[in-house]
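Exam review. A common question shows you a sequence with its structure tokens and asks you to describe the fold in words. Practice with the pair below. Do the first one on your own.
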Amino acid sequence: MQEHLKTNILNFKWPSSTPVIYLSLEDIEGSHPIHRSKFSKQVKEAFPDTDLSSLEHIFTTFTQEIPNAPSIKINLIKDKELRIYKQFLKHQLKTYFLEKGYIVVKNFVRDVQVWMPSKKGNTADYNLYYKFSFKILFATLTDLPELVVSYDGTSKVLTKSVNDIEETEYIKRCVYGQKTFNYQMNLDTEEKEEFYNAIQFEQAYPIFNLSLARALDIPIEEPIRPINKYQKYVALINNFATNYLFAEDFKAIFPFKTDAFIDVPLNRINHIDPQVGLLEFGKDQYGNKKTHLVPKLAMNNLNPYKRPNNQNIKFFFVYHTSHKEAIKTFYNNLKTGVTADKKYFKGIEAYVNIKASTSKEHFIEFANENNPIPEITEQLENLSFDQENVSYAAFYLSPFDKFTPNPEDRNIYIQIKELFLNEGIVTQVVDYEKMVVNIENQYNFQFSLQNMALAIHAKLGGAPWKLAVTDKKELVIGVGAFTNQGENRRYIASAFSFQNNGLFRKFEYFDQNETDLLAGSICKAIRDFTSVAEADKVVIHFYKEMSYEELKPIIRGMHTLGLKIPLYILNINKTEAEDIIAYDLNWNKKLMPVSGTYIRISENQFLLFNNARYPNSQRYADTDGYPFPIKIKVSSPDEDAFEDADVVLELLTQVYQFSRLYWKSLRQQNVPITIKYPEMVAQIAPRFNNGVPDDAKDALWFL
């Protein structure tokens, strides 16, 4: 079936006459700052007696005339003045919705975001708002100006004001009138202090967060995630556009070419051959290589590519006293399978092709579920392990899930993971409550056990599958990040030497400010790799756009090593919100484009769809998910890096391939493991008390 790709972009017309804006050196009432980066030649000529080079800003009232003030007619051909025009349009956009009475804020990339009150989902404790963002582009996907309309999810605003809340330490952001503010803001400027002192607490309403909800005894409902995110997203932006954007007064600001989201231009669409994502599994008994595209299907019939090196594997359990009886049922299901027909899971030994048994003498039982570490530590110190001959894996039955109110309870599994990792033992956490529910629903439980078996296999050093197509000699380095919201601190981690077959080598992790250490470790990985093999290229997958300060020591290091191989940087971002997406109208209303579809949205910037929908596939299971595309920006410090027209396709293909090597779940991921694995390390490792042991930095214990 021929695809029909649409996007969340509305085309609007260039103005018939360009606006005249008024300028001032002073910050007068009703004016807006124009940053020095937008000072065009025409702007500078408007102030012939002033040297603007020493100023950070000048000011404008846009089209509101200022008596005796200079003005310019914006030249839409000039980049700097086009940016002023964008600022003018954003001001009009914000003003339009403020005058309609809606909450208007800036999202995290500083685009205009509008909060629309919901008619459903409100409770006595909070009111629900749907959030939509706008991004203004000029001739990016088309030859016209473009208004990108994004759905950013929802927020709940409490009906109880700050004035009526005692537990103010749990308050984060608040709605105040038609804007929001951070209640816990640092009062480090006169402007912030003045604003804080003027707040009327009875008119400030906190935005729902879990800690505040628990403190106020507001019922916390586990979010209901849509089966297909595309359907919800597209329905919401279409309804929003129809009801609010295609109104005549809005179109006076943005005169749309048509009242409809545009098709993706055909010359911007291309496809990666799905066969490059072919995966190699274990050979059959006759020595024949076995391959497959879909791990979920392959693992039912094929063996993993490589077993863990140790032939002797033993499992033991760490559990609360009250869970002792449940272990027997769980282990029986893990060992022999779940459903009567054992169609999808015949037991861990058959599923991942290993031999394993329990080590009952190592079972650890604790009584204090809120502070089990002293008990576990004491028992662990009295146990001996035959680690020269045996690989051990500990199953920790956790009494707490990720929604547990107390963060200390949620953090116990991290402490246990570190405790056993220091002993050279990998762990697998099992949510006890979820396990009990799953045991009662055996059909679903078998899929949880599949994922658990897969992760244990990889943690013990096995390789469930690898890339079948491995014709390049490339060093791929991934750098991911995780932000600890409680600490408001970001940690980064790097996963080194994903070879062309996709097999992982080693990782390190750092604080976000340790740029030189990150660069040094990247250079070491390059040196280690090139000392044993000649690389065609070095590719760095980075979780954000790499700054020159981050890149400079890497380039310097490569020069020191005398390496003349090309270096490519791929900035890889999720597109869950505030961005361009695309959807396919010709796929049974399910909307997700075929896997491997990529769209050039600007020079060397692309949307790539990574999913399990392949061309000509007749059926698609909802359980395979409907991931949004990822956005990839390709760059290089080398002048001639893109002379070969095929290099971009090669780099995108590599991302596509590496998204198929995730060993924690059988579900296809949209983000490659070069970003995903480091993000997982950055989430866990900084919370260890003594860091990660050196001998664990080449293992996948974090899965």
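Now try the second one, then compare your answer with the model answer below.
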Amino acid sequence: MRKQIVALAAVFCTLAVTLTGMPEAAAHHKNEQKVEKILYIPHDNRPISDKQTAEVISKLGYEVVVPPDNMLGSRTDLGHPDELWDWLKQNAQDADAAVISSDSMLYGSLVGSRKHEYSKKEVLERADRFQSFRKEHPKMELYVFGSIMRTPRSGEASGHEEPGYYRNYGADIFRYTVLKDKEEMEGLTRREKKEYDFLQRLIPKASLADWMGRREKNFAANEKMIDLTRKNAFNYFVLGRDDNAPYSQTHLESRHLAAAGQDLGKTRFQAMAGIDEIGMLLLTRAVNDMRRDVPFVYVRYNWGKGEFTVPSYSDEKIGDSIAAAITAAGGMQVKSPEKADLVLTVNTNPNGKTYEANDRANDGTPREGTKYFADIVSDYVGKGYPVAIADIAYANGSDNALMDELRDRGLLFKLRAYAGWNTPTNSTGFVIGEGMMAEHMKDEAVDDLLLTRYLDDWAYQANVRNTIARQLTWLRGDGVYGSLDSKMGAVATRSERMLTRFVEENLPPIDSLAYIEVRFPWNRMFESDIIHTADEPVDISYFPKK
């Protein structure tokens, strides 16, 4: 009864926005013959953004329709916004809901939002199309997410996804914006003022003007999207903060944009840390709205700093990020596991620091807090609670010490969800969405999704990737970590062999792991597409591409 009451209250809170779509959604829910169709336009074609996210929702029996990969943006192809608008119109007639990246529709992709050459006028005209689309499809549930441009700490940290000058002046631009943000928030010391003036002279004026000009277009577009939310163009709009820091241009702009949408409330609009996980969160929200469900989530941290940890690549406490993600997914945080539909356990380091998964220290040796956290997980699983793990002690891969504990205790496939990929907020957001959806899945589907994360986050990101990165100079051909080029085949073959060995040593016998194929869709080692089958590998297309 409690969930029904909360769900009813949530419906009334958003009644003004969703009224036109409610009767149809309810009718579809009653008609078991009807397979509800959700359009999903991610912000690029990386496996985690695209097929791995869509796969979670498809496991529930929904038809998730995604544009073809070659229409979505990549690392080098900035995307095709006008073609995506055509695709959306062609596929919208019989869709029940749509989850859409505004970056894809305005610039072509997430990378496109940083490197495009469109005028401000062109970008804002594309934003206006959302209002026209809403008028043409007034009954469709529409969820949109965009990004506030990131502020990488250096040219190396940018991964060559910023304009060329960022490779030379990225660290200086980052520091310039740190001081700019701090000046606005609390003022600068005399020494910092001198540094600020020096950086303005050091960074080429044309480069700084171009970078800030790109941000101004992005800021204006995001203001426009907030205004469209106010005009009921969307059921829900989220602005994600890509890689940023407590002081940075991203943090500065987020403060102003959050203030611009403050009147909408969190039931309509949020500005939150992270970006790559938001597609998962809004697909989860779409399903929860269709089911008239408000999942209850209990969050338990490792001892120490816990919820007050400010993880790397973020500008806020992880407790705040998790609360925002639960709200974005259509859930509610509760204070006891007995009332929860999902118990989210968060593997933070007691000292509040976030390390990198490719650190040599991530060798499986238990650290302070490792066994304590494993005991927490074991206790909740033993009591029959549906448990998920957000593994964020390390960024960009799993905590090997924790995973060894879970393996040795037989807990790997007793969880309902797990994530340890990319930034900490990417992991927490993704696992919240997947964990909420696992409640409605068969055990086989849950295990399949866990296996995807174990192969990617644990086997590849935290182990194989790091080993082969140190061996790259041994391999024939031309290529480096960020651009594999002619070394790609050798890296793929070596990755497949090492993954096969890792699986034999760490995972139970699973038929679908008989053959493992590894691809690198962005021509770099950071992302992998791991395909595993019981038979000889074939070209797999997981979702309909119309």
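Model answer, second protein: Residues 68 and 545 are 5 Å apart (CA to CA). The longest strand covers residues 141-148. Full marks require stating both points clearly.
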